[in-house]
Every structure is written in structure tokens, then in C-alpha cells.
Amino acid sequence: MTQPLLPDLPGLSIEQITLTDGVITVLAQSHTTQASCPACTSLSSRIHSRYERILFDLPWSGRIVRLVVQVRRFLCLQPTCPRKTFAEAIPAVAERYARRTIRLKEVLESLALALGGEQGSRLAAALRMRCSPDTLLRLLRRLPDDPVEPPRVVSLDDWAWRRGHRYGTLICDLERHRRLDILPDREAASVAAWLKRYPSIEIISRDRSDTYATAARIGAPQAIQVTDRWHLLKNLSEALQRCLSHHLSMDRKQQTRELLEAPPVLQGKRTPYLSPLQKQTVQLHRTERVARYEQALALRKQGLSHQAIAESVGVGPQHGSALDGGWSFPRTQKA
Ligand SMILES: [Zn+2]
């Protein structure tokens, strides 16, 4: 019954399936009778011991699946072989020393390729295939590079190993939109040496530096050098800025000259708007101030001191001292 459900476990016979705490455990056993030594490749059928290998597999219906495989350890029969014993491999199910089945590893690789470490790890956890971001990135790094086809259109650009400190050269295939190589430095000699390996190169897109121009001239003299789109736009924006700033400065100078030549425009004093009630209040205050002033003058004529005048008219001593010939109470002008 269970074997048709697990068709991708060749060489293993399923003994038992249990469900504990939401984890499905599949007990399986290898039924090969002999195995090949990984050191000397000689076959052996002499069993030394048995042990259990635990492999995580693709989840079933949202449940984690654990494969517990009983594998055998064989004795190597070659007297000259440095390995005395070796564990049998289950190459169709898992790689040597791996803790995941090949099919689970392939799904995780697809997640890492599509989403990267952090996002891939989150989705993997939601799909019950727990895997840390670091492990996903490690799986990515182990993926073999695709064979490099002879490139025709390549780009040369700076690659910051550490921004502001150390730079290399990033070389991309612009037709296939993929990275071809990252050189450890951005020296003309290293770039030229790399370009010489590919006589198929016809077009080189590069920045405005002399280094890459020299490298392209030496390494791929057959290729046409073009400026990449980003640098073309940068050239254009810089040219526009130079042109416009010249015109703007001329305009500003003209405006300044006109301002200096024109007669000054004086702004009239604006009187604040007052409501009828506010006007009446202002007038009352003014009348009261004038009356107080006249009273103070009359008292002064009678020879009173400024302290006595201040007390009499009901103002503070500082106002009183102003009565004694101060500026705030000019004798000829009423407040
Ligand atoms: Zn051996």
C-alpha cells in the first residue's frame, strides 16, 4: 500500500509509517546486498554494522516528513585500501552525508533561486520545509555554474568588493543577461587577459574610464567599444546642467543689473484694520493719556517732585522720572 505512495525511493523498502506530534516518520531499509567502497571502488558484501540515517523529505499534506533509513556499513576487502569500513550510499535518495532527500534539496534550491535567503526561508517554513537563510544561500553557492557559451556582447563595469576601498571588475553577457565573471581588480592587464580568452566578443559596453578602454583595445581589438546607457544618460545630464547653468547665470546677472538701475520702490506704511469698537477704545485710551499728561504738567508747575507727580497721577516711578524732562513726555508735544 505504502510503496506506490513513495515511488521515488528506489533501493529502499518501507517498513513502517508513524505520525507523532504532527511529524510523519517513514522507517525504511536498504535492500542492496553489496556496495562499492568510495576509496578503492571495489565491491564488498561483508556487512560490518548497521546504523540509522535520518533524512528530511518533502512534506505531506502540510506535515513534516522524516525518513529514517537503516543503512549498512561494509568492510572493504582490499587489503591495500586505507578505508577499513564504509557506509553504503543511497544515491537515488540522498547525497552522501546529506540530511535532506535530493527532492527536498531541489525544491529548496528553487525557493532560494526565486526568493533568496531570508524570503525563501520564510516561505519554506510556511510550507513545512524548515531551512535557515544561511543554508539556502549555501545551497545556492553549491549549484554548478551553467556552461559559458562564447559571449558576443559584454559589459565591463566596476564591482565594489568594499565600497570606497576595494573594487573589482564585473563582466556580464548583455545578450543572455547574466554574469560571466568578477575579476579581483580593475586593472587594464587583468581585464585584457580575460577578454583575450573570448575572441567571439564583438561589442564591449563600458564606462568612460581609460582603464577599460585600454583593456578593450588590447584584449579585444576586434570589438567595437560603446558607452553603456547609464553613462550616456549621465553624459547627457551633465551637458544639460552645464548649458542651463550658463543661461541661468546670464539671466540672473541681467535681472540684478535691472534692479540696480531702477529707482527704489518704497513700500507705504500699512495701517491695520480696526473695527468701530476697537477705534472707539483706542480713542478713549488716547484721551485718557492726554488728560493724565496735562495733569502731570500742571502738578509740575506747582513744583512737585516727579515721585509725587507719579503717585498723584497713578503711574509707576519709571514713568514719573520720565516726567522730569525725559523723552517720553516731551513738553511741547502731547502723547
Ligand atoms: Zn576500499
Q: What does this 3D model show about the protein?
A:
- By secondary structure, this protein is an alpha/beta fold.
- It has four domains: about 1-100, no CATH class; about 100-145; about 155-230, Nucleotidyltransferase, domain 5 (2-Layer Sandwich), CATH 3.30.420.10; about 290-335.
- The protein contains nine helices and twelve strands.
- The strands form three sheets. Strands 1, 2, 5, 6 and 7 form a five-stranded mixed beta sheet that branches.
- Helix 4 (about 190-195) packs parallel to helix 5.
- The longest helix is centred in the C-terminal third of the chain and has 33 residues, at about 230-260.
- It is elongated, with a radius of gyration of 46 Å.
- It starts with a helix and ends in a 12-residue tail after the last helix.
- The structure holds zinc ion (ZN).
- Zinc ion binds near residues 39, 42, 76 and 83.
